[in-house]
Amino acid sequence: MSRLGLVSEDSQRVAEAIAAAIGVEVEVIDTDLVRIAGTGKVRNDVGSRLLRGFVNKHVLAHKEPIFISEAGYHKICLSCPLTGACFYKASIVYPIITNDEVIGNISLIAFSDDQKATLCTRAGSFIEFIGRMADLIGAKVLEKEAMTEKIIMANQLNAVMNSVDESVIAVNSEGVVTHFNLSAERMFNLSRDEIINRRLEEYITGLPLMELVSKEGGFTLREFFIGVRGKRLHLLVTARPIIDSQGRQAGIVASARDFKETQKLAYEIMSAQKVITLDEIIGESPAIKELKVRAAKIAGSNSTVLILGESGTGKEIFARAIHSASPRHARPFVAINCGAIPESLLESELFGYEEGAFTGARKGGKPGKFELASQGTVFLDEIGNMSLYLQAKLLRVLQERQIERVGGNRVIPVDIRIIAATNNNLEEAIASGRFREDLYYRLSVIPLVIPPLRERPEDIILLLDHYRRHYNHLLGKNIKGYHKQAQECCLSYAWPGNVRELINAVEYAMNIEEGDLISLTSLPPHIRGGRPKTAGLAYAPGHWQTLEQMEKEAIAAALDQFGWTEEGKLLAARMLGISRATIYRKIARYRLSPRSKKRAEGGVN
């Protein structure tokens, strides 16, 4: 469509008004000689192209108006086949110019002798008049183009706002909602139709945008607990003022994110980008030194590694260090806890899914961890808790390096190295039918056994000192070391939760201690209680029963100390360095209860 075509209706109204006022016909054409508007004999030809148009071409080319008093006899008409026989009697043709560009012509036309007489008698005033009408039409074109551009920009803005995951809300200076994107609809469970042009505070409480932005000039990622239809949402909000052309605040635009989702995303990003080298693993004991040497030797291989060790010994840290020392170090390291995710979700997390695979499946499907870790490393923690169904699928991945998404039938090749880890006795699980023997041999191509902390006392002092410095920096303190009694207590403690428990204990003490040295009284109560260090128990093949017995005793003792309530279980899990899900699973596995403490000392159920 030509530029004049944008205002064809306006042009037609102008033409008809002129024709009615001065008694001659009017015609408007664009640069392609297409009639945009017309009256009288040319009214029915609107939309068609002029067959010859010599005069119109001349005006378009020279940007100057022209008056033809004798149509068909003017010098411009000499090359026209209708010379001397033109059906026009007379005409005034005036260019329509915008920003020094000709976009068409407007013409006054005489088809009868009376119209010719009118046109010729008042040619001077008509030329001035038609020039103003040309300016009017040109201004309408610019206005229409500006409006069209604004609509396009508004549509683009809406498309951008609706494509972002963050909720975006805009209000005017009165607090009335002017914009509410699709993510906001989902987050607040409100439709745009019901909230647009209504005051924000009528629907969303606890978000004082007008007050805060006016006072502070905007803010970034501030926490708010807001109320929406009886529900309480925990959000991170960023807000900025909208300033008009006079520099006044005309409104506010705010974006909101779910606090928990933001925390989860930040953790995933930090976890995915965390780089740990073998040299950074703390430990000078012969067992750890030997383990680091062995890990360095196998790092360059693509063979599967099975890391064995009690909970909290640092199995994932070793997995990350092996990945960092491998040729795959520049590719993703993707960790997933097989014991913390339900089987139905774990399958889609690992293998991904196709569109429509199940209710709620994302449109277009979703790649799984095996695909996302392309040319990298997948760390499968707590592999002993994987179901037999998923064990069979994992076996195929190890054998064929291929996967199929949930709900799909397309075979997808994967180039990954798998490092698995467990604190369970897989040999016992095989005997009881809970773990596939063929998968065990596929996983344990290269086994690594991490000794528990109680077997490497040389490392306890190193770890205590390292995490003291770490929490000094984190908490803004300057604690210089440990009192002798506190150090001896830590050396005599059995550390059933291993390094993870030690880290928690140091953090606890650093928060409690007010002096220059960590004292005995600043240590967690259960460590001060002095459960004696168990001697003669080695973590090696053939000693699984002993380790399970120790685990059962540690959990039972922690629960007896902190209580069997939900709060007590959470505190016990924290002190043992295990998750809430793990302690509940262990309680069920060992059939622990407040009356089972003595039974725990007699053997594993």
Please characterize this protein's 3D structure.
The protein has 605 residues and is of the alpha/beta class. The chain has 5 domains: 4-146, GAF domain (Beta-Lactamase, 2-Layer Sandwich), CATH 3.30.450; 164-260, PAS domain (Beta-Lactamase, 2-Layer Sandwich); 274-449, Rossmann fold; 452-535, Helicase, Ruva Protein, domain 3; 539-605, Arc Repressor Mutant, subunit A, CATH 1.10.10. 43% of the residues lie in helices and 18% in strands. It is built from 23 helices and 20 strands. The strands form 5 sheets. Strands 7-6-11-10-9-8 form a 6-stranded antiparallel beta sheet. Strands 2-1-5-4-3 form a 5-stranded antiparallel beta sheet, with helices on both faces. The chain has a 5-stranded parallel beta sheet with strand order 13-14-17-12-18. A hairpin with a 5-residue loop joins β10 (231-243) and β11 (249-258). α13 crosses α15 (437-443), α20 (544-562) crosses α21 (566-576) and α21 crosses α22 (580-590). The radius of gyration is 40 Å and the shape is elongated. The N and C termini lie far apart (84 Å). The model is unreliable at 532-545 and 596-605 (pLDDT under 50).
